[in-house]
Amino acid sequence: MSGVKRALTPNGWTLRTRLVAALTAVSLLVCAVVATVTLLALHTSLTGQLDDQLAAAASRTATAERPPGDAPHRPSDLPAGLRFLGAPGMGVGTLGARLVDGTVTDAGVLDSSGDLLQPSFAARSALTRLPADGQPHTLDLAGVGSYRLIAARTPDGDVLVTGLSLEPVNRTVVQVAGVVAGVAALGLLAAFLAGATIVRRSLRPLNRVAATATRVAQLPLHQGEVALSERVPAIDTDPRTEVGRVGAALNQLLGHVADALVARHRSETRVRQFVADASHELRTPLAAIRGYAEVTRRGHEQVPGDVAYAIGRVESEAARMTTLVDDLLLLARLDAGRPLAQDEVDLSCLLVDAVNDARVAGPDHRWELRLPAEAVVVTGDQHRLHQVLANLLTNARTHTPPGTRVTVSLARTGRRVRIGVCDEGPGIPAELLPVVFERFARGDTSRSRAAGSTGLGLAIVSAVTEAHHGQVRVDSAPGRTEFTLELPVRQPRPLEPHSPLTAVR
Ligand SMILES: Nc1ncnc2c1ncn2[C@@H]1O[C@H](COP(=O)(O)OP(=O)(O)O)[C@@H](O)[C@H]1O
Ligand SMILES: [Mg+2]
User: Fold this and answer.
1) Shortest-distance ligand to the CA of residue 436
2) 357 to each of 319, 353, 388, 416, 457, how far by Cα in Å?
3) Ligand 1 centroid, distance to 4 Cα (angstroms)
4) Structural domain of residue 362, as residue ranges?
5) HAMP domain spans which residues (predicted)?
6) How many domains does the chain contain in total?
């Protein structure tokens, strides 16, 4: 319904429709004005000619009235009052009438056989309203038709009316009107067709510019390295034309955008490279710190209690920092699109191992594993997939109280596998849920702080899953939190780097 409404309102019309409609409307108006003026002029001119003939007939009437001597042409069969109609030159259809004291005494119209036809009563009474001024007037006489009439007074006071039918004039005007209408219709059709063709041709460059803009709009420009090579074709960038100016400006804009995107990509790459380099460089000193702390702790000499405590703290914080640095390095590598390994990964085995590890780390939780009967094998990076599962299981352990049941399930549907990690813990806080996969997003409970939370675990889950062309989602409510991971069984293409420019160690 609204579509129909929009189609009928000019606002919803395309430029092409509007131009063609305007052109057709203007043509229609011009045709109407020309036709009206022509027909009016024709009518006036024909009526003028008729008036000349009428004036001649009226003067013959006056002459015929003048007695005596000049005998009427056909005196015999005309009534006495209308004898003037028999004067030579009175044509068929001529109307004659005599009014005495404002009343029609005689009236008749000459027919083709020379007889007189009697006008109707209404026509006769209409004749009485005619002014006797010797000027032509138009009257519609019922039953007789439209007439031009002249009324003149005779010397003895009678009024004589002479009239000629307007019917030939009207017929000619109607015929000419028909011809004009036909020609105008053809002209309008021609104007419409020519207009539509011309407008379509004129708008073609604009369509090409719009097509370029549409193609650019569909490019994924929001991230990564973008090759923005789309440009408006050179023929549509002539600055002397309107469309050319739009095309040239669009090309200039696209040039700027392309430059900006290259600059953005360079700076992104630089930041990524910096994070990767920094993480990489930090690993060696961290390993040294951990090593020295361990050596000191295990040293044979007894160290005072507070020193032993301090060394223990140094060791645990160094271990935490190592995890953080490893996570950062992994994310930087995934961002850079570093190729992942393409192993044949037995997910069933991987799950068994991961759940066993979790059982050891969290003996107070109740761990359940549901596997399909046959082994599920996918292509992917075994290490990374193991890390994904470990992160999810660690979360299920560290963000839930002891005794919570955690169910890990695996299912294969067609070309995809689904891994579910579901716990019956308190759930993810509502304000955290929308951003839970973002980097450094974490709940601020004392439990998670104590668990050495970094906020990178789920970011890694998400990045690794995406690199495997899979999806991860979470549904969480108090009492039930479920992470669902979907992976394709076969990787669609070799796992390639997103950007060959970026080399991260
Ligand atoms: N199973 C879960 N139950 C409750 N909260 C969770 C669960 N998994 C994740 N979270 C919340 O999501 C946050 C982000 O998790 P993650 O990215 O792994 O970081 P981290 O575990 O290092 O805090 C956690 O801090 C925690 O608040
Ligand atoms: Mg975590």
Assistant:
1) 1
2) 19, 6, 13, 26, 17
3) 53
4) 343-488
5) 200-262
6) 2
